[in-house]
Amino acid sequence: MKEGYFSTFELILLALFAALIVVSKIALRLPLQMSGHSGIFWMAIMIVASGVVPKAGAASLVGLTSGLVAAFLGMGDLGALNTFLSYTAVGVGTDLALVVLGRNPENPVVAMLAGAIGHFGKFLVKYAFATLAGAPVGIVVLGLARGIVGYIIFGALGGLLGALTLKALRRAGFFAYLAEKK
To answer: Per-residue pLDDT for 81 more than 90?
Structure first.
């Protein structure tokens, strides 16, 4: 019998992280009025998911799954396709960053860079949709310049929070517990 890349247990864990991202987007709102501020929460969850299931493609799967759920629930301000692609881009960007940076999301620097790059993927989707909608590129870039900084900073902060969470989970014995359950 051929063994799959992700075990059933790992897929369930990733689906739970995807659901947690959607719930955090609904329940945890900061009154900052800044672009990308929700990246603190969902990039932390994305980094934790990448550390709990340390395989390439884990973050992409979480992004894809959370994008499907969020689009189904009607979340997002620009429609289901934008929501789905934004969440998926966050997962793919995080995965690519972790592969390039060495797959160590417990390292705060790696996690911050992966968080910033992953969250910037969401910004790129929004930029692409604005351009495809026919908005003048110069005005879109000028209006989104402040957003770029917000997406990068909040993504990096979320990555740092994720790395700190992974270290706390390791100290608490969570990974030893997971090893027993596999």
So the answer is: no
